[in-house]
Amino acid sequence: MNQNNTGPRIHYLALLILSAALAACSSTGLSNFTPQHSDAVSTLLEQAENAKQSGNFISAENSIERALRIEPENAFIWFKLGELNCDIGNFYDCENIALKAKRLSRSGALTRQLDALLARSQNTR
Fold this sequence. Notes:
The protein is an all-alpha fold. It has a single domain, classed as Tetratricopeptide repeat domain (Serine Threonine Protein Phosphatase 5, Tetratricopeptide repeat), CATH 1.25.40.10. It has helices spanning 6-26, 39-53, 57-70, 75-87, 91-104, 108-124. Helix 2 (39-53) packs antiparallel against helix 3 and helix 3 packs antiparallel against helix 4. It is globular and about 35 Å long. The N and C termini lie far apart (68 Å).
């Protein structure tokens, strides 16, 4: 019987490929998601976050909606609007907005954030 030493090499190669794949999966986590948008939208989202932290939810919503008028197909902005609605208890709106954002999302990390937002909304109401 001809013994071939390629067996251990194939297993080693398979382990290397699996390790690389797992490393790639872990590097696409939520903390590594960086949304892409214009400077104007960045400013508006920063204003919205500051207003939200101050308890001024109407101003926060207005800033996010202005950002959406600039970039209406930006799933991250829709996510931020859904998140705000969840924070203030508008769970029905949160879920509808999150579903819209999921349809627009091109990012696995953002989609996972949206799934978490949907679960949070559904578990809270």
